[in-house]
Design a protein that fits this description.
With about 70 residues, the protein is mainly alpha-helical. Helix content is about 45%, strand content about 0%. It is built from 2 helices and no strands.
Length: about 70
């Protein structure tokens, strides 16, 4: 008997969470333009230098210089 009650309570809680997540998605506009994010990542407005590659060739970064 308690197992059946627990099963229905858990199912009701899951349904409540799913409805809340779907309502949040519509309220915040998560499904307004589903195509835009995959193209936005391809647009590079400001080119950023690669980390650790801002030194001229042949010069080691300071973290790799070994002093004896």
């Amino acid at each position: 008997m308690w197992g059946l009650i627990l099963f229905f309570a858990w199912t009701a809680l899951e349904i409540l969470f799913v409805v809340a997540i779907i309502a949040w998605g519509f309220e915040t506009g998560q499904w307004k333009d589903i195509e835009e994010p995959k193209y936005r990542m391809l647009v590079d407005l400001e080119l950023q230098p690669w980390p650790g590659r801002d030194k001229p060739k042949g010069e080691k970064p300071a973290a790799q210089v070994v002093k004896h």
